[in-house]
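Researcher: Please translate sequence to structure tokens.
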Amino acid sequence: MDVRQRVGLNVQALRRARGLSQEELAHRAEMHQTYLSGVERGRRNPSLLVLQRLATALSADVADLVRPR
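Model: Translation complete:
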């Protein structure tokens, strides 16, 4: 599994654990829902700034997004 897939699975797992829809998380992280969908599917290569916005919106650390589960 490459890092993009790992990040995608971690974002999706954290989002679901917090009861958020993709639309709500995208709004909180100030990005389009379609971009977030691509991140979750491992199709996008998010920048460090995007990872930080996602982590903040999920009340998590960036490390939580890249850590193997």
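Researcher: Any highlights?
Model: The radius of gyration is 10 Å.
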